[in-house]
UniProtKB/TrEMBL annotation:
Classification via InterPro entries: ADH-like_C (IPR013149), ADH-like_N (IPR013154), ER (IPR020843), GroES-like_sf (IPR011032), NAD(P)-bd_dom_sf (IPR036291), QOR-like (IPR047618)
Enoyl reductase (ER) domain mapped to chain residues: 12-323
Organism, as annotated: Dongia sedimenti
Protein name (Swiss-Prot/TrEMBL): Quinone oxidoreductase
Domain of life per record: Bacteria
SMART domains registered for this protein in UniProt: PKS_ER
Keyword entries, A-Z: NADP, Oxidoreductase
Length: 325
């Protein structure tokens, strides 16, 4: 079967991405053939393309998509042709019109969730799920600092945190992005480009600091974020939008208040089939109850994925960005 896909033959900038015709073989044992209707764009895609997270060449790109099952391979009993499905983990290759994928990593979509919404929420929404429910379980009244509050992960997190009763401090890089975070439930917003955000966090918390920082930005925000935590607070660094967080000596955690530090990744929180279903089920639940509305800010043709990567890295996007095959 012929299909088209974005492929890379070397690591580098967006210019290394090529729109190629590929041959999709019949689904093998444990696999399904999926026709993607919408693909998700995530920062991890740029890390893999650039070589920060190296791939074996040549390689497809993309971890997230939603579509319809076209065929199933030997041994697959949970899915059948015509099923609406979504996925958000390896193997790479979601930037494709048609592809084969392991059935054990797929989830069925509820009838209430369309393909574009699913492609814009699976990876980012399940990231929010494990951050807020399982890395540091947020309770009503907790003070939470969340960086990049108007981004794809941030727009979901602002709503989910509001539903939990947290006091959320969201940072963003423009008045417009601050307004988005505020409209989605942030208790306080800080424009990090024009305000001393560490000072503002201390003012908001009466000098005590926050219980937890969720930081997907990395290099630019990591060290100052440690100064925003209260004694025995938790620093959760989960992304590298500005580059990897700097190395530190463990003693600094003691000096700043016996802090906890973790560097989690979604894929360790959905490694088992049961955890995958738990995370997806929790996400579908808050979306179906209207507690979280997925904000799709941008759509690009899949063949223009390089342009989407450039805009994402230039911080020109808000909410979720999806690619349409």
């Amino acid at each position: 079967m012929k299909a088209n896909a974005i492929r890379i033959h070397e690591h580098g900038g967006p210019e290394v991405m090529r729109w190629e015709e590929v041959e999709v073989p019949p689904a093998g044992p444990g696999e399904v053939t999926i026709r993607n209707h919408a693909c998700g764009l995530n920062f991890i895609d740029t890390y893999q393309r650039s070589g920060l997270y190296p791939l074996t060449m040549p390689s497809g790109l993309g971890l997230e998509a939603a579509g319809m099952v076209e065929a199933v391979g030997p041994g697959v009993t949970e899915f059948k042709p015509g099923d609406r499905v979504a996925y958000c983990s390896a193997p790479n290759g979601a930037y494709a019109t048609i592809r084969n994928y392991p059935a054990e990593r797929l989830v069925k979509l509820p009838d209430t969730v369309d393909f574009e919404t699913a492609a814009g929420m699976m990876l980012q929404g399940m990231t929010v799920e494990f951050l807020l429910r399982r890395t540091y379980p947020v309770k009503a009244g907790d003070f939470v600092l969340f960086h990049a509050a108007a981004g794809g992960v941030g727009t979901i997190a602002m709503q989910w945190l509001a539903s939990l009763g947290a006091v959320t401090i969201g940072t963003a890089g423009s008045p417009e992005k601050c307004a988005i975070a505020k409209s989605l439930g942030a208790t306080h917003v800080i424009n990090y480009r024009s305000e001393d955000w560490v000072k503002r966090v201390k003012e908001i918390t009466d000098g005590k600091g926050v219980h937890v920082v969720y930081d997907g930005v990395g290099k630019d925000t990591f060290l100052p974020s440690l100064d925003c935590l209260r004694m025995r607070g938790m620093m959760v660094t989960f992304g590298n939008a500005s580059g990897p967080a700097p190395e530190i000596q463990p003693l600094i955690l003691s000096q700043k208040g016996s802090l906890f530090l973790t560097r989690p990744t979604l894929f360790h929180y959905i490694a088992s089939r049961s955890d995958l279903e738990l995370s997806a089920g929790a996400l579908f639940d808050v979306v179906n109850r209207g507690l979280v509305k997925i904000q799709i800010g941008h759509r690009y043709p899949l063949k223009d994925a390089a342009e989407a990567h450039r805009d994402l890295q230039a911080r020109k996007t808000t909410g979720a960005t999806i690619l349409i095959p």
